């Protein structure tokens, strides 16, 4: 199974950095790691993805461990609009399991 | 450009009935995938279509089926509905960048079709 493990919830204060961890110990060498987030009453929204090296975009950074068994999504300065459920998934060939994700709570 | 459109947004059915949900992908996207989201199981992958062919399938019974048309629009059908089929059904489209047989492209999700089975 394309299984990922994430903490159920995390809390942050506004303007502070947030590091959201994900364990994907059974990932294969060619599977990309994707992160999506879901705000209430909306479909998931793409955040970032990568294969081996760290990746940056306007929304976040993705740090991938050298052995690729884990990754960390970094929000450099959390805002109230970042409060959402964050899903780490890896795009395996025949299975795609989002898991329960991490609910990020952001306090003003 | 227009996003992924799913219809209907809400529907109520009774056990034993069947339902068809529709998904119009973003223009130019040839891959469409479907997901079921429930509070207990989270987001689960149903199937993926590319150029009218099913490429991948999740672990769901045969009551769940889908198809894709030549214009990339997709439908999914659930027959003989059960109470446990109550869920938010999400569709996502993608440019489908296949690498090693796997779609590595970014997924764009619709807002979903919320099905309630009574």
Biggest interface, residues from each chain: A-B, 24 and 27 residues
**Number of separate strands of chain A:** 10
The run of helices and strands of chain B is: EEEEEEEEEEEEE
Gyration radius of chain A, to the nearest Å? Answer: 13 Å
Question: Quaternary arrangement of the chains shown?
Answer: heterodimer
Low-confidence stretches of chain A: none
Strand order of the largest sheet of chain A: 1-10-8-3-4
Share of residues in helices of chain A: under 10%
SSE-based structural type of chain A = mainly beta
Topology overview:
The complex is a heterodimer of chains A (108) and B (118).
Chain A: E1 9-13, E2 18-23, E3 33-38, E4 45-50, E5 55-56, E6 61-64, E7 70-75, E8 84-90, E9 97-99, E10 102-107
Parallel strand pairs in A: 1-10
Antiparallel strand pairs in A: 2-7, 3-4, 3-8, 5-6, 6-7, 8-10
Chain B: E1 5-7, E2 10-13, E3 19-24, E4 31-38, E5 42-50, E6 53-57, E7 64-68, E8 74-78, E9 87-94, E10 98-99, E11 102-103, E12 108-109, E13 113-117
Parallel strand pairs in B: 2-13
Antiparallel strand pairs in B: 1-3, 3-8, 4-5, 4-9, 5-6, 7-8, 9-12, 9-13, 10-11
Q: What is the gist of this entry?
A:
The complex is a heterodimer of chains A (about 110) and B (about 120). Chain A is an all-beta fold. Chain A has no helices and ten strands.
How does this structure look, described?
The complex is a heterodimer of chains A (108) and B (118). By secondary structure, chain A is mainly beta. In chain A, 0% of the residues lie in helices and 47% in strands. Chain A contains no helices and 10 strands. In chain A, the strands form 2 sheets. Chain A has a 5-stranded mixed beta sheet with strand order 1-10-8-3-4, with no helix packed on it. Chain A is globular. Chain B is mainly β. Chain B has strands at 5-7, 10-13, 19-24, 31-38, 42-50, 53-57, 64-68, 74-78, 87-94, 98-99, 102-103, 108-109, 113-117. In chain B, strands 2, 4, 5, 6, 9, 12 and 13 form a 7-stranded mixed beta sheet that branches. In chain B, strands 1-3-8-7 form a 4-stranded antiparallel beta sheet, with no helix packed on it. Chain B has a two-stranded antiparallel sheet with strand order 10-11. In chain B, a hairpin with a 2-residue loop joins strand 10 and strand 11. Chain B is globular. The mean pLDDT of chain B is 91. Chains A and B meet through strand 4 and strand 9 of A and strand 5, strand 11 and strand 12 of B. Strand 9 (97-99) of chain A pairs antiparallel with strand 5 (42-50) of chain B, so a sheet runs across the interface.
């Amino acid at each position: 199974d394309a299984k990922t493990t994430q903490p159920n919830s995390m809390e942050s204060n506004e303007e502070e950095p947030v590091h959201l961890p994900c364990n994907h110990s059974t990932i294969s060498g060619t599977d990309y790691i994707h992160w999506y987030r879901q705000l209430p009453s909306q479909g998931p929204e793409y955040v970032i993805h990568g294969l081996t090296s760290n990746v940056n975009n306007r929304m976040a950074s993705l740090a991938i461990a050298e052995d690729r068994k884990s990754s960390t999504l970094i929000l450099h300065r959390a805002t109230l609009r970042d409060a959402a459920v964050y899903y780490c998934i890896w795009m395996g060939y025949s299975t795609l399991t989002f898991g329960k994700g991490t609910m990020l709570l952001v306090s003003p | 450009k227009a996003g992924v459109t799913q219809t209907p947004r809400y529907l109520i059915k009774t056990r034993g009935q069947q339902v068809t949900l529709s998904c119009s992908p973003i223009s130019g996207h040839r891959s469409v995938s479907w997901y079921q989201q429930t509070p207990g199981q989270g987001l689960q992958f149903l199937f993926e279509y590319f150029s009218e062919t099913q490429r991948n399938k999740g672990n769901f019974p045969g009551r769940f089926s889908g198809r894709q048309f030549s214009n990339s629009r997709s439908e999914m059908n659930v027959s003989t509905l059960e109470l446990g089929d109550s869920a938010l059904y999400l569709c996502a489209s993608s440019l489908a960048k296949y690498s090693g047989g796997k779609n590595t492209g970014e997924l764009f999700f619709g807002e979903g079709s919320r099905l309630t089975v009574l």
